[in-house]
Amino acid sequence: MSENINLGVHASTTGGIHNSIHEGTRLSCGAIQVFTANQMQWLPRELKKEEIKLYHEALKGSGIRWIVSHTSYLLNLASEDDSLWKKTIGNLIQEIERCEILEIPYTVMHPGSHKGAGMDKGVRRIIKGINTLFEMTNNSAVELLLETTAGQGTNIGFEPEQIGAIIGGIHDYNRIGVCIDTCHLFAAGVLSKDPDRLDECLERLDRAFGLDKIKVVHVNDSKKDFGSRVDRHEHIGKGMIGLPLFRAILRNGFLSKLPLILETPKTGDMDKINLKVLRDLLR
C-alpha cells in the first residue's frame, strides 16, 4: 500500500508564512496546518505583500494539497463576557480574511468554554457567535471547523452530540464543519484504542452531526488514558492509544481521504519520525 498523500504536520511559520510551505515540502507532506498569526495575541500582525508572494510561489511547486489554519487559543465564543465574545468574533473575522488571502479553505477552532455558566448556555452563545461571524463575512467561502475536545474543565465539544447541537443551530450550514482529534476523542471516552471499534465511533459521529461534516483529522497519540478528559498529546505509538488504532485510521476508506495532520510535541525532528511511523503502518 502506498504512502498516504494526505499526511502532514502543523508547520512553523517562523520567518514568514511561506516557511510553512518549505517545512511541509521538506517532510514530503500532502497537508499542513498553520497559525496565520501569533496564537497567543489578540492583535495579529499584518501579512506583508512580499511574504504572501513568496508563500504562493512556494505552494505552486510543493505538492501540498491541503492547507488548514488553526485559530488563536485566546478565543472563546461560549463566554458570557460580552467584551471577550466580541473580541473573539473580531479575531475570527481577521482569521477568515487571512485565509482568503492565502487561499486556505478551512480554519479550525476550539468551540469554547462555558466557565461555569452551563453547557446549554455555552452552546447557545457559540451558535449566536458563529451566526454573527458568518453574517459579517457572508462573501467568504472559508469554512469554520469545530474541533472535538478532550473535555478538560468546562470545555465544550467533548461529546459529539455537543458539536451536533452547535451545527444544528448554524444558518449557513455549508460553512460549518468538524475537525476530529484522535487524542481528544480518546481522552473524552469516545474513541476506543481497539481498532475493531473504530466503526462504532464513526457511527456515533455520523449520528451526531454527519460524517460529511468531518473535513480534517488531527492525528495524535495521548499521554493520558481513555476517558481521562485530559488533553495531552504524545508521539505516535508512545502514548496510551497504540499503533493498531492508527493503522486502522490510515486504512479506513473514509478517514484516509481526509487531511491527516500531526500535532505531536515539537522536539528535535520528531515530526519526521512520527510521519515515518505512520507511513510504515501503511506498508
Describe this structure in words.
The protein is α/β, with parallel strands linked by helices and 283 residues long. It has a single domain, classed as Divalent-metal-dependent TIM barrel enzymes (TIM Barrel, Alpha-Beta Barrel), CATH 3.20.20. 38% of the residues lie in helices and 14% in strands. The chain has 9 helices and 10 strands. Helix 5 (160-168) links the parallel strand 5 (143-147) and strand 6 (176-181). Helix 1 packs parallel to helix 2 (49-60), helix 3 (82-102) packs across helix 4 and helix 5 packs parallel to helix 7 (198-209). It is globular and about 50 Å long. The model has no long low-confidence stretch (mean pLDDT 96).
User: What's the CATH topology label?
Assistant: TIM Barrel
Fourth-tier CATH superfamily name: Divalent-metal-dependent TIM barrel enzymes
Give average pLDDT, whole number: 96
* Outline: globular
What's the story with the biggest beta sheet?
8 strands, parallel, barrel
Identify the notable features of this structure and list them briefly.
283 residues, alpha/beta, TIM Barrel, 8-stranded parallel beta barrel, two-stranded antiparallel ribbon, 9 helices, 38% helix, globular
Concise structural overview:
This protein is α/β, with parallel strands linked by helices and 283 residues long.
